[in-house]
Amino acid sequence: MTFQNKTAVVTGGASGVGLETAKLLVERGANVAVLDWSDQGGEAIAPLGEKAIFIKTDVSNEADTQSAVTKAIDTFGEVDILVNNAAVLAYSPVHETSLEDWNRVMGVNITGAFLMSKYCIQSMLRKGGGSIVHVGSAQSFMSQEKVAPYVASKTALLGLMRSIAVDYTPTIRCNTVCPSTIDTPMLHWAMEQSPDPQAIYDECVDMHLLERIAQPQEIAELILFLASDLAANITGQAIRSDGGIGIKIEGSKR
Q1: CB 47 within 8 A of CB 32
Q2: Catalytic residue among 91, 119, 150, 168
Q3: Which CATH class for the 7-181+215-243 domain?
Q4: CB atoms within 10 A of CB 159
């Protein structure tokens, strides 16, 4: 997989899967615009050198999103690849979910993906082609307890993916990577909400047939594959990299 002279945009790119995706894209020749709302984003991508720029962005805000895409194009040229990775998490069942939390999660996880797709698709059409990869979740297909906003947002990503694929293929392909537990700052934040973080970590390990938690680079490699010409025959597909958790849960229900 090589991406020489390609322009990529990665949201949520200051840490975790997004940062690993940006690193791999740069290593394989791409120019990368890293979007994140973290104040540490510039520092995080500094080792990537001149082939990467950081743009502080709230992807749930249309003006921010449009401005960021414009800056990416002005710096590196029209967009070839979009990775919609930005996401936030809230823990609550429906009756305990505030409208503020619901809007925050949906705003970043699904509205952000819509807005980024909207403006990057315009660029891809001008260039004559491109590839979009959403980062969904194993919870695009199933649910834990008390994560209603997150599950709803990650499920909605699949509908957005299908619509983009139907409307724009073959010019633009769109797919979704659906991982389960990944060793990222979001996981560690979630564990810290428990009085016994180690117990939560052990439970996460035990849920997977592979009895391990994925590393961010593993998911990044799959993202790059779907964005590359090697996946030229794949569009509108949700690809699980879930350590076997899906089949384990589905099998236990039979």
Answers
A1: no
A2: 150
A3: alpha beta
A4: 11
